[in-house]
Amino acid sequence: MFQIVRKQVLSKGAIIRFDINAPRIAAKVKAGQFVIIRVNETGERIPLTVADKDAFSGTITLIFQVVGKTTALMRSLKEGDSLKDVVGPLGKAAEVENIGTVIMVGGGTGVAILHHVAKAYKEAGNYVIGIIGARDKETMILDDEMAHICDELIITTDDGSFGERGFVTTPLKKYLDERYDIKLAYAIGPIIMMKNVCNLTKKYNLHTMVSLNPVMIDGTGMCGGCRVTVDNRTQFCCVDGPDFNGHLVDFDELEKRNNIYLKDEKDSLLNSIR
Amino acid sequence: MLEDVKYLKFKTYLNTYCPHCRNTFNYERKDEKYIVFKSIYKGEEAELKLSPYLDVFDVESSVEVAENDRLDDLICPKCKKSLIVEEPVCGECGSPVAELIITAFSKLMPFFICLKHGCTWHGLSKADENRVKLKIPRQDMPEQDMKLRVANHGEVPYGYTTELAQLEAGRCLQCKDPKCVKGCPVNVDIPAFISLIRDEKVDDAAKKIKETNMLPAVCGRVCPQESQCEALCILGLRDRPVAIGNLEKFVADYERKMDLVKVPVIKTKLKKKVAVVGSGPAGLTAAADLIQRGYSVTIYEALHEAGGVLVYGIPEFRLPKSIVNFEIDYLKQMGVKIELNCVIGNTITMDELLEHFDAVFIGVGAGLPVFMNIPGETLGNVFSANEYLTRMNLMKAYKFPEYDTPKPKGNKVVVLGGGNVAMDSARTAIRTGSTEVTVVYRRSRQELPARHEEVRHAEEEGVKFMLLTAPVKYIGNDQGILKGLECLRMQLGEPDSSGRRRPIPIEGSNFVINCDVAVVAIGNSSNPILFQTATDIKRNKWGNVEVNPETNQTSKEHVYAGGDIVTGAATVIQAMGAGRVAANAIHKKLSAG
Ligand SMILES: Cc1cc2nc3c(=O)[nH]c(=O)nc-3n(C[C@H](O)[C@H](O)[C@H](O)COP(=O)(O)OP(=O)(O)OC[C@H]3O[C@@H](n4cnc5c(N)ncnc54)[C@H](O)[C@@H]3O)c2cc1C
Ligand code: SF4
Ligand code: FES
Fold it and tell me: Which of A69, A74, B135, B538 is the most exposed place for a label (fewest CB within 10 A)?
C-alpha cells in the first residue's frame, strides 16, 4: 500500500496533487519517467508521470486532472489513505544535458510533467525559457514553481484571465523569431498543443521533444496497448518513450487511439456515481 | 455393450465374483436390498477370452434379494451357492474371505477385497489383466454444457469423479519401461502415481507427482499432453492413450479440495539469500525448491499480482485463478517473500539485487508481443493477445463496469494465429458478447499448434476457423477504428526445415473479412526491460538469455535464468523444469562455499 501523505487541490476540484510514500521509486525516478497506479482491487491501471520527488522523505508527487472514473476516485481519497499499487519508475528518463538555452512549453496538466523536466534542465545548468498555458486562471497550475525554475516565463490563458490571452504558440513563435540560440524545445500537454508546437518548431528546424500519453496497461512493454507511430515505426511508449522526437510522431493516430475508450470512461464514471 | 460401462453409476453398483463358479455379476444396494444385476460381460465372452475364469450369466437369472437378506447370505445366481465361503482364503492375509467384490474401477477384472482386513489382490494373470484393461474405453472428461459455458467464465472441464478416475487409472498397463515418462519434460513417475490412484491413495499420488512437478493442478490443465506423455503412452498404439492429464488434474484437485496439502516445515534455515525475478512458473518453481532447501527467497514481480502468464494470460475458464492463488499462498506459507509492483531493472537494478542476494534467478518470460508488421496495425481495436487477455483476465474487464478496465468490445472478432494464445483469445471473445469469432491461421488444421482440447472446445463454442489464410492489411474507418482485415489465401508447398509444409500465398486471392476487433496472437518474444540496465547478461540474436544448459547459469556470475526468457515462448512445464535445474545449480554453488 502506498500512503498519500499530502493532498492539495491545485485547481478547484479538477486538478489535484498527491505526495505519495514510495521510497524505492523516489530514490530512482528521473524527470520524464512515470508510474502506473491502481487505486483499489477493482481499479484499472493508469499511468501518471511523476511531477516531482523527494528522495529524502521517500515521496513522489503526482498531479492529475479529474477526467474519468479513476481520477474521480482519487479525488475522493484523503491524506492518510492509500493507493493499492504504484509501480515504477517506468519509461526512459529525459536525457538532460547542458546544451545552453532550452524552451519549455506546457499546457494544462502537462505543466506538472514539464516542471520536473524544466527543473532537471535548470539543474544541469541550462538557460530555461518557459511558456505555460491553461484555459483560464483557475486551471493554471504550478506557475509559481515554474517562475522559480525558469529564467524567463510567459503565461498564457485562452480567456486572458491570467497572463497573455491566447495559445502558447504565439509567444513561442515570437521567441523563435527573436532568438537564435535556442537548442531544444520540450512540449508537454494536450495532443493538439504538442502537435501545433511541433508544426511550428519544424519550420525553424528546432529539435523538439514531446511526452506522449497513450492508453497503457502494464507499462513494461508486455501488452503493446501503448503503441505509437514515430518515424513510421511502431514504438511502445512505455519502454521506448514516453519522450519522443515530436517532429516524427503521428499525433493524429495517437488522438484517435486515445479516443476509443472515451465512452467507456463515461459509462464507468456514471456507474460509479450510481 | 462395453460402451455402456462408463455410464454406470459406480457408487451404487458393485461387481461381485463367485469364488466357486468364477461367475461375475453386479448387484446394487438399494435400501439395504441387494438386487443381482445383469453381467456386463454378456455377449463379450468370446472376445474377452477370460474363461475359464469368468462365466457370463443372463439377465433373466438375476435374483432379487429379499428385504431382510444380509449380504452374508447372498447366493450366486448361477451355482446357487452362498458367496460366503471359507475358500479361497485371502491371498494376502490367509484368513477367510467374507465378501468378494470386484471393485468398481476394475470393472472388467476380478479384484478381491478382504473385508475383514481390507487387503486386496488380483485374481487374474498379468496377461489377462492387461487384455481386460485394453477393453476399458478412455473415460471422457465431464464438461460444462457448450451452450451454457459460452455465457460464463467458469472452468469448462468439471474434472473426473473418483469413480471415473479409478476406471481411467485401471487402464494403465503399468509398463516396465514406461514410455509416457520419457515424454514428460520433467519425467513425472506416471505409472507410480496412477498406481497410487488405484490403491485409493490419492494424496500419496499427489506427493508422487510433486516430487518432480510442483504445480500438478496447473499442468493437468494446460500441458500439451497429447504431444508429450500421452503421445508416447503404449495404449495409444491400439486405442486412445491413458488420460494422464485428466488424472493429474484429478489428483491435484482432490488433494486441494480435501485439504490434504500440508505445508512442509523447513528444518534447515540457511543464511544465504536468493532473489527470483518474475513470478511465472519458472520463478515459482525455483523459489519453492530453494526455500525447501533452507534459503531465504524473495520473488520480485512487475505486475500487481503474482503468477506470470498463469494470471495475466491464461483465462479463468481454462485455469481458475483460485488455483494459481492457492499455489502462491502455499509458497508464502513456506516463507517465500513476494514483492509485487517491482520492476527489476527500474525499481531495483540487477546489480543492486546482487549486493543483497547471493544468487539471482531470472524468469521474466517472453512478454513482448510480436505484431505482423502489416499496414494498419496501430488502428483502434487491433490488440495484441497480451493486451486483450490482460484486460480480460488480470484486470477483469469481463466484469466491467464492476471492474474499471473497459473491455474491448466487438461483434465480429478475428484472431490471428493458431496456438493456445489464439484459442484463449477467441474463446474469451465468445464469452464476452461477440457474435462472430474467426481464427485466421496461415497453415492447415494439422499444424494448429494449440492443444487439441482447446481447438475442440473452441469449435464447440462456435469459433470459426479460417485456415490457410494470411492477413495482409488492416482496414480502418475514418475514426481510425478497425473495420476489416484483408487476407490472402494460401496453399501448402514443400515441407520446410521444421518438417511442416510451407504455406505459399495464392496470387490474387485477396479478400476482406469484416470485423471490428482484431487480436494478434502470433507469438511473443523476450521482454527487454530488465536488460536495458543489465547489459552485461549475454543474450542471443532473438533477445533470449544464453545459459549453460546444465546449470542454467548466465554469462554473469551468480545469475541464473530459465523459462520463456531462455527458450522463447514455450510451455509451463518447460519453464518449471528450467526453474528446477537452476535451483539445483544454485544450491550446488551456494552450498559449496
Ligand atoms: C495466453 C497464453 C496461453 C498459454 N497457454 C499455454 C498452455 O496451455 N500450456 C502451456 O504449457 N503453456 C501455455 N502458454 C505458455 C506458458 O504460459 C509460458 O511458457 C510460461 O508461463 C512461461 O513461464 P515463465 O515463468 O518463463 O514466464 P511468465 O509466465 O511469462 O512469467 C514472467 C513474469 O515475470 C514478470 N517480469 C517480467 N519482467 C520483469 C522484471 N523486469 N521485473 C520483475 N518481474 C518481471 C512478468 O510480469 C511475469 O509475471 C501460454 C501462454 C499464453 C500467453
Ligand atoms: S505408457 Fe501408458 S500404459 Fe504405460 S505406464 Fe505410461 S500411462 Fe500407463
Ligand atoms: S503499456 Fe503495455 S506495452 Fe506499454
Answer: B538
> Is beta strand B464-466 parallel, antiparallel or unpaired with respect to B436-440?
parallel
- For residue B378, give the nearest of A85, A218, A257 by CB distance: A257
Separation between Cα atoms, residue A231 and residue B8, nearest integer Å = 68
Task: Give yes or no for a contact between B327 and B215, defined as CB atoms under 8 angstroms apart.
Answer: yes
Spell out which residues line ligand 3, taking CB within 6 angstroms: A 216-219, 221-226, 236, 238
Question: At A75, which helix (H) or strand (E)?
Answer: helix A69-75
Q: Where are the domains of chain A?
A: 2-90, 101-258
Task: Tell me the domains of chain B and their CATH numbers.
Answer: 2-135 (no CATH), 149-257 (1.10.1060.10), 273-366+551-592 (3.50.50.60), 371-522 (3.50.50.60)
Which ligand approaches the C-alpha of residue B530 most closely?
1
Ligand 1: nearest atom to the Cα of B281:
25
Question: Grid coordinates representing B281?
Answer: 512458473
CA B332-B334-B337 angle, 5° bins: 40
Whether A89 and B400 lie within 8 Å, measured CB to CB:
no
- A257 contact residues in B (CB cutoff 8 A): 378, 380, 480
Q: In what order do the strands lie in the sheet with A182-188?
A: A164-165, A152-157, A127-134, A101-107, A182-188, A208-211, A243-245
> Distance from A171 to chain B by nearest Cα, in Å?
33
SS3 of residue A66 by DSSP: coil
Neighbours of A161 (CB within 10 A): 14
Residue A191 has phi, psi (to 5 degrees) of -55, -45
Which one of A223, A227, A238, A269 would you mutate to disrupt binding with B, by most B Cβ within 10 Å of its Cβ? A223
Cα dihedral A157/A161/A165/A169 (nearest 10): -10
For the record, the C-alpha cell of B477 comes out as 474507418
Q: How far is residue A248 from each of residues A32, A232, A244, B12, B97, measured CA to CA in Å?
A: 19, 8, 8, 75, 88
Can you read off the three cell numbers belonging to residue A207?
529539435
Phi, psi of B357, rounded to the nearest 5 degrees? -125, 150
Taking alpha carbons only, the member of A17, A39, A192, A27 closest to residue A112 is A17
Q: Cα separation of A121 and B341, whole Å?
A: 29
- Structurally, at CATH architecture level, domain A2-90 sits in Beta Barrel (2.40)
CA B68 to centroid of ligand 3, rounded, Å: 74
Taking contacts as CB-CB distances below 8 angstroms, the residues of chain A near B312 are: 222
Pocket of ligand 2 (CB under 6 A): B 172-175, 178-180, 190-191, 233-235, 241-242, 244
Per-residue pLDDT of chain A (274 residues; tens, 9 = 90+): 899 999 998 887 688 999 999 999 999 999 889 999 999 988 899 999 898 899 899 999 999 888 888 888 899 999 999 999 999 899 998 889 999 999 999 998 899 889 899 999 999 999 999 999 998 888 888 888 999 999 999 999 999 888 898 899 999 999 999 888 899 999 999 999 999 999 999 999 999 999 998 989 999 999 999 999 999 999 999 999 899 999 999 999 998 888 876 666 666 555 544 4
Specify the ligand 1 atom closest to the Cα of B221. 8
Other beta carbons less than 10 A from residue B269's beta carbon: 9
Task: Enter the CATH code of domain A101-258.
Answer: 3.40.50.80
Helix, coil or strand: residue B584: helix
Alpha-carbon distance B266 to nearest alpha carbon in chain A (angstroms): 30
Alpha carbons within 13 angstroms on the beta-carbon side of residue A151 total: 12
Interface of A with B (CB under 8 A): 24-25, 28, 38, 42-45, 69-70, 84-90, 217-218, 220-225, 227-229, 234, 239, 250, 252-253, 256-257, 259-261, 264-265, 267-268, 271-272
Q: Does B380 touch chain A (CB under 8 A)?
A: yes
